């Protein structure tokens, strides 16, 4: 019997010991705080309560929403936390309505301020003054397991009521609901919105592509709604870095054209001795030269030089003719050489009485009438008044470069200048003309481009960059009167001829340029002016 009793007691002791061990073990399991689940980054965390130790119910009622409904909580790499809150004005209803404001927060940084009303005398709610108080407050927090954050503050009302006008610190408890914390994407959204005004064409292709790819990645991250704080923080840093690395095209140095110039210099003076096919290939390579490119397109410039070099090496002489024609060829060559020498000895002037061969111009500078023509109809373009009617052609080593001159013009109530000019090349694609000179306002007044051919009409695209017209390219043509081509000397090619004028008043008339067409143009100008007036009124509202 005693043995059974002893055994029963032993079992009970063992059970109690086991329970004690289990209880001890449970107390050693660490409690996981809600705040510990947050990685480094910014979060929006609900404020469930804000309580003061002040033993006045009316004070606590007003004080409960003094920091609003949520706080922006920032967690650094070491887990340290700060809270960013908006300081709200309080009205304490206690035998009258008193105006109160939080003045200081323990360890805080005050990011902005505002003016608010403040009650100065307890018992007399009408005694009010305007004071400056913090608006945005940032301060360190150390949440408890339940999200409670304790710190000291001062309130103007408490200073007057309980401190005799001196600071009266009060301990408060702010409780944050970390279980409902959301990643703060405000900064990322604001950053992306600020990039919407950036224009691709103003930056180098390589720097823009890298930036734009990261921007698209950021938008996808936001759209997913599953971004972590670490991802958002990293995305913001990457975007800012790539934005800083964007390279403006206009700030780049000019490309080096020395190889192109050397290749052009190697072109034989007399191309008549070579076969038409090989000469055509050389002319195509010469006409494909585009001036004014920047250093980011140096490879393209080098390729232009290489194409000319290949074409020069590929020149093949025409087969020798029989029946004494060799002697005639030699005689003709000698005569041509002598004639050229005599011509070179003469002044570089030509009144236009002697027709020049537009396809075989020797090196020099020439002037030729030119007008801006409608893309389809045989009449001047609406923007014809912006173009000087005398252009220049500079021939060097067989390459013809045309210079044209522009000025500002008015379309109804719109004043605009030609900002961009594109020329259709031999391959059907358009290339940008180079801006050689600008006026005091920065508007181009002289463009240059390699002539793709010597036809009467050249297809072009012009763009005055007028917002009401859509900032778009407009199809047009350059009409060139080669029959009046003349050679000149001692001119500055970036300045228009002093004897020239602007517009198309001296342009040859065609059957399609009738009074009815002029009337339609006038009507169109009036319509554009009307649109501008409406547009300006809307903008003014």
Record keyword descriptors for this entry.
541 residues; alpha+beta; ten-stranded antiparallel β-sheet; nine-stranded antiparallel β-sheet; 23 strands; 31% helix; disordered C terminus
Describe the secondary structure blueprint for this structure:
Blueprint: H1 2-28, E1 41-52, H2 57-63, E2 70-75, E3 81-86, E4 90-93, E5 97-100, E6 102-105, E7 109-119, E8 128-141, E9 148-155, H3 156-162, E10 170-176, E11 182-183, H4 186-194, H5 205-224, H6 229-244, H7 258-265, H8 276-287, H9 298-313, H10 325-345, E12 364-374, E13 390-396, E14 399-405, E15 409-411, E16 414-416, E17 420-424, E18 430-432, E19 434-438, E20 444-450, E21 457-463, E22 474-480, E23 486-488, H11 515-540
Antiparallel strand pairs: 1-2, 1-10, 1-11, 2-3, 3-8, 4-5, 6-9, 7-8, 9-10, 12-13, 12-22, 12-23, 13-14, 14-20, 15-16, 17-18, 17-21, 19-20, 21-22
Helix pairs in contact: 5-6, 7-9, 8-9
Helix content: 25-40%
Question: Could you tell me the radius of gyration in angstroms?
Answer: 41 Å
Integer average pLDDT: 80
Number of helices: 11
Question: Which segments are poorly predicted (pLDDT under 50) over 5 or more consecutive residues?
Answer: 13-32, 323-353, 511-541
What sort of overall outline do the alpha carbons produce when their principal axes are compared?
elongated
Multimeric status of the protein: single chain
Count of DSSP strands: 23
Please summarize the sheet with the most strands.
Answer: 10 strands, antiparallel
> In percent terms, what proportion of residues is strand?
25-35%
Spatial gap, N to C terminus: 105 Å
What structural class should be given to the helix and strand makeup?
A: alpha+beta
């Amino acid at each position: 019997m005693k043995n059974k009793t002893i055994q029963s007691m032993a079992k009970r002791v063992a059970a109690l010991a086991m329970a004690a061990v289990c209880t001890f073990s449970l107390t050693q399991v660490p409690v996981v705080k809600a705040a510990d689940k947050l990685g480094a980054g910014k979060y929006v965390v609900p404020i469930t309560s804000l309580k003061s130790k002040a033993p006045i119910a009316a004070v606590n009622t007003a004080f409960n929403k003094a920091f609003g409904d949520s706080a922006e909580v920032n967690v650094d790499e070491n887990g340290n936390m700060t809270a960013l809150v908006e300081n709200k004005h309080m009205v304490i209803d206690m035998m009258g309505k008193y105006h109160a404001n939080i003045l200081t927060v323990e360890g805080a940084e005050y990011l902005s301020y505002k003016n608010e009303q403040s009650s100065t005398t307890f018992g007399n709610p009408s005694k009010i003054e305007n004071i400056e108080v913090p608006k945005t407050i940032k301060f360190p927090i150390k949440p408890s397991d339940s999200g409670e954050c304790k710190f000291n503050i001062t309130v103007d009302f408490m200073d007057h009521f309980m401190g005799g006008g001196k600071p009266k610190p009060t301990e408060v408890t702010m409780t944050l609901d970390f279980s409902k914390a959301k990643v703060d994407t405000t900064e990322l959204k604001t950053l992306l919105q600020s990039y919407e005004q950036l224009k691709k064409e103003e930056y180098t292709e390589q720097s823009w592509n890298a930036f734009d790819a990261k921007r698209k990645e950021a938008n996808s991250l936001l759209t997913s709604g599953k971004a972590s704080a670490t991802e958002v923080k990293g995305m913001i840093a990457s975007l800012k870095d790539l934005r800083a690395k964007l390279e403006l095209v206009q700030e780049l140095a000019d490309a080096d054209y020395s190889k192109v110039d050397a290749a052009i210099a190697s072109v034989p003076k007399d191309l008549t001795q070579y076969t038409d096919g090989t000469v055509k290939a050389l002319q195509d390579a010469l006409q494909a030269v585009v001036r004014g490119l920047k250093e980011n397109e140096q490879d393209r410039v080098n390729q232009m030089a290489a194409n000319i070099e290949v074409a020069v090496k590929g020149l093949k002489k025409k087969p020798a003719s029989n029946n004494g024609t060799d002697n005639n060829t030699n005689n003709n060559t000698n005569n041509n050489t002598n004639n050229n020498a005599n011509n070179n000895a003469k002044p570089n002037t030509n009144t236009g009485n002697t027709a020049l061969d537009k396809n075989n111009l020797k090196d020099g500078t020439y002037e030729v009438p030119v007008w801006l023509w409608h893309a389809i109809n045989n009449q001047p373009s609406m923007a014809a008044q912006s173009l000087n009617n005398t252009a220049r052609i500079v021939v060097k080593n067989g390459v013809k470069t045309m210079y044209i001159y522009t000025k500002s013009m008015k379309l109804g109530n719109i004043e605009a200048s030609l900002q961009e000019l594109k020329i259709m090349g031999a391959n059907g694609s358009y290339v940008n003309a180079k801006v050689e000179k600008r006026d005091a306002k920065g508007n181009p007044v002289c463009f240059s481009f390699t002539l793709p051919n010597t036809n009467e009409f050249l297809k072009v695209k012009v763009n005055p960059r007028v917002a009401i017209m859509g900032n778009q390219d407009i199809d047009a043509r350059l009409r060139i009167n080669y029959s009046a081509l003349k050679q000149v000397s001692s001119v500055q090619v970036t300045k228009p001829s002093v004897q020239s004028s602007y517009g198309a008043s001296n342009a040859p008339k065609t059957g399609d340029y009738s009074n009815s067409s002029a009337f339609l143009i006038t009507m169109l100008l009036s319509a554009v002016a009307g649109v501008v007036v409406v547009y300006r009124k809307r903008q003014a509202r």
